[in-house]
Every structure is written in C-alpha cells, then in structure tokens.
Amino acid sequence: MTAYRIIRWLVFIVISSIGILSIIFLNNYHGTIEKVLKGIPQLYNFDLNTNSKNFNVNGTLFWIIMGIFLTGFFYILFFLSFIIDVIKANKKLMSLNFINLIFMLIFGIVIVYLNYKVMLFFGQFIDNQDINGNTEYNYDTYNFITLLINCFTGFYVVSMFLFIINILPYKKQLKFWLAITFRWNTASVNVNNIENTNNKNNKINKKLRINNYINKTNLEKVTTNFNRLIWSNEFNNEIILDTEEVEALIDKYKTYSDFKSLTTFTFRNKFSMNIADENFQIQLYPSFLKEIDRSFYHINLISKYSRRIFMAAYYKFAYYVAFALEHSLNIVYARITTQILTFDNLDTKILKLTSENLNNFVLKLYNVVRSFEASNFKDYQNSYTYFDIGKVFYNELTNQIAKIFEYSYNEIIRIQDEMYTGEYNDDVLKHKNDKVKTAFDYFGLAYNSTYEEFKSRYREIIKKTHPDSVRINSESLIKLTTMININKEILEEYFQTI
After folding, report:
1. What span, in angstroms and rounded, lies between the C-alpha atoms of 450 and 445?
2. What is the mean predicted confidence (pLDDT) over 227-245?
3. Any idea where the domains of the chain sit in the sequence?
4. Which domain of life is it from (predicted)?
5. What is the pTM of this model?
6. Average pLDDT, the chain
7. Most CB contacts within 10 A, which of 2, 82, 370, 437?
8. Residue 423: count of CB within 10 angstroms of its CB
9. Is 320 exposed, middle or buried (0-12, 13-18, 19+ CB in 10 A)?
10. Mean pLDDT throughout 356-385?
C-alpha cells in the first residue's frame, strides 16, 4: 500500500465523517412542518426593509448544509485524483480505477446538486411569503431532504467499501473483483505480476538505453590474490537520461545480495564512517553507507535530477569496491580458514583507506554535479560522464587495499607453514613417536574414543574458536586453528585405517 493511497484514504474518512454527521443533524430539521420552520432562521436571515434574504453564518443549519456541500465538493476532487490513477494504469488496472472514478464523480455531483435543492427548499418558504407574512407552499418535506439523506447514506456505505478495497495492493483488488463477478478461473491469471506490469510498460523503451548487465568475469589481477573488476564506463556516446533512467542505474548498483562473505562480516561487526564530519553506519563493509542520501552533499543539491545522478555515481563506486574485496576474499578462503579481515586489524586498515578515498570521491562528485546545477544544466550533453567519476578513485583505492591484503595473506601462510614444520614435533608432540595419542589428548578424548565422539568434540571446539566469534591476537588465532587442523587430519587418517 503506497503512502499516497493511505493519505487519500485518511482524508476520505475525515471528510466522509463530516458529511455523515451533517446528515444525522439534518434530520432535526426534517419530517414535520414544525421542524422545517425551525430550520429556516438557522439557514437564512430575512431583511424586512429590503425584502431580501441572506445566509445566517451563525446558524446551525447553515453549517450542516456547508458540511454536506464540503463532502460533495471533495468527492469531486477525489474524482480528479482517480483520473491520475487511470492515466497511470495499464489496461488490467484501468477498469479498477475507472470504477472508483465514475463513482466519485456521480457521488460528488449528486450530493452537491441535492444540497443546492435543499437550500432552495428552505429559501422558498421565505420567497413565497405574502405581504402579511403568510406563505403558500406545499409542505411535502419528503422532497429533496429525504432524497439527500437516502442518497448520501447509500453513497457513503458504497464509498467506504470501495475505499477499503482501494487500499489493498492492485493484484488483490483485481483478484477480488474477478471473484465477486464469478470469473473464478481467471482470478489467478497473471495476478502476481500485476503491480509490475505498469512499470514495465512505461519503461520498455528506456530499458533499451540502460544496460543492466554487469560483466563479473571482466577481472584484472592487482596482486597475486587480489583481483578487481575492471571499471566499465556506463556510456561511450553522448546520451541524456531522464530521472527514471537514472533511477534504473541506482537499482542496478545498489543491490549486493551476492556478496555473502561481506554480508556475514558486516552483520557480525558494526562499522561506521565519517563523510564530511557526518557519521554514517556501514550497510555493507567497506563502501555501502546507510542513509547516504541524508548527507550534506546530497541534501545540498537542489534538483531531484542532480541528486539521482549523485546517488547513481556513488552506488556504482560502492559496488565496484565491494565486488573487488568480495571476489578476493573468496580466492583466499579457498586456501585458508583464517578470517583474513580480522588478522592484524586488516579490516580497520581497509576501512581507513576507504574512508579517505570515499571522502575525496564524494567531494569531487558533489562539486561537479553542483557546478552542473549552477550552470542551469548547460553542459547536459556531457552529464553521462558523471556516472564514471569514481573510476580513478576506485583504481587508486583497490591498488592500496591490494597491497595490505596481500601482505596479510602472506603473513597468515608464513605462520601456518611454521606450524606444519618443526614446531609441531618440537613443542607439541607429547607421546614420543605417537601422533595419534597426542591428537587424542589435544581433543581431550580417550584413546579408545569412537569417530562420532571425535567429530562431536571437533565441532564443539570449532564453534568456540571460529574467527568471527573471537577476536584474540591474530597470530595466536592462526596457530590455534592450525593446530586444530593438524590434529584433525591425524585422527581422520587414523580412523580411516581401523
């Protein structure tokens, strides 16, 4: 349910409540001639000198009539709002909005017209007075008062029903109308895609100009274990995008659901970053910031178009940085079990480099887009280049990250290699020439323990020493996990032979 439809529904409730209360009070001036005569001075003042009448703005009946008129008038305005819905709707949704459109128009016109006739009804008691103050009038008070009350009550009930249906998602609305018109077998046809159909129809031509494909195999090796995605310029020729097309670019780069390693790492570690003295929570380590659209740089841009350009360029930069780190993590995690980002505070070092680089990039981007605005969008034919301002900053940042990433990886390998050489025999082997007994002792198991007992104990230790669960000295953690793996391999080999 959109905010627009919720607000419209709340306004409808308020206006309709005013109308139905007015109808209830109108009954006090209807039904008998005495009630009608009581209501006349509550609606009109009569000037004997000029023999004319005017509205009594202090009278109760006047405000009752105005309440009903206000309701009818607003129903006509609701009709105009549904015209917008009909224009935006595709063929399947047009019939839904057309029902509401016609109903609101008829309701508004009928109520305003009957309200006008009721005013004439009371006024004619004064207009038909003779010189002695007597009146000749058919006192059939059923007339337009009863008709107005009955029509308004009926319209009110139907409109409440329609508006309750209208606040439902479009696909449920369609399914409901198909069901109550006994078209059961068509009620489920294409219903799941009904809300997306309109956007697809409206953007079909624009999608031809927006390439949603990202070639994730177009990689280059920065260091032995750090690869990055080669930055691909968004457009090679002059192109002028409208706001919806820029929105499509934002959607292209703001999704990072495939970055499993970074998603898990970010979830377990809360990070933040300062941009122009404003602190932002990191949504995905290290480059996706939460609520970046509330930053000074974004808010200080005047037009929506400029802001969308800013966001599209930012998300492209953030995506490329995150992709490079995610891909490189997957490379090293195929070889090591240590969480490399927590080794020797590598995560903090990467975050510091990213913060410095991102601040420079965002400042450059803001200045370019702000100048674009200040020139009254004079250089619009080159605005397509703004989406790739981050290319230089991206290459510089990934070069810096690659160096410290490679160093950390090499240190982890060095420590592990030392553990697999003489240190095991010299410092760990308790039972001379019996690695199996030493391994059983390491896991706290008896020599006659079963394979199932060993696996259960191994899983228990792994949970306690998982690199994402503890944050001890990096070298100590590597030695600990390496010793676990060495003894595990010994017992795995032992149980295969018995």
Report:
1. 9
2. 88
3. 3-167, 206-409, 421-497
4. Bacteria
5. 0.52
6. 78
7. 82
8. 14
9. buried
10. 91
* 87 contacts: CB under 8 Å, gap ≥ 6: none
**Which tens digits make up the pLDDT trace of 253-299?**
999 889 999 998 998 888 999 998 899 999 999 999 999 999 999 99
Q: Please give the C-alpha separations between residue 30 and each of 128, 207, 384, in angstroms, as whole numbers.
A: 19, 63, 69
Structure tokens at 75: 């129903």
Tokens for 203?
A: 């953007």
376 CB burial (10 A radius; 0-12, 13-18, 19+) = exposed
pLDDT tens for 326-358 read: 999 999 988 887 889 988 899 999 999 999 999
* Tokens found for residue 107: 């309701």
- Beta partners for 129? 135
Say if CB 110 and CB 69 are below 8 A apart. Answer: no
What span, in angstroms and rounded, lies between the C-alpha atoms of 24 and 219? 74
> Distance between CA atoms of 138 and 133, rounded to whole angstroms?
16
Give the DSSP H/E element, type plus range, for residue 245: helix 243-253
Helix (H/G/I), strand (E/B), else coil: 85:
helix
Which residues lie across from 146 on neighbouring strands? none
The token pair at 217 is: 């195999």
Structure letter (DSSP) for residue 343: G
- Structure-token pair, residue 21: 């209360």
Cα maximum dimension of the chain: 134
Q: From CA 156, how far away is CA 154, in angstroms rounded?
A: 5
Q: What is the DSSP string of 398-432?
A: HHHHHHHHHHHHHHHHHHHHHHHTHHIIIII--ST
Per the CB < 8 A criterion, the answer to whether 166 and 5 are in contact is yes
For 449, half-sphere exposure in the C-beta direction (CA atoms, 13 angstrom radius) is: 22
At 193, the pLDDT band (50, 70, 90 cuts) reads very low
What is the DSSP track for 149-174?
HHHHHHHHHHHHHHHHHHTS-HHHHH
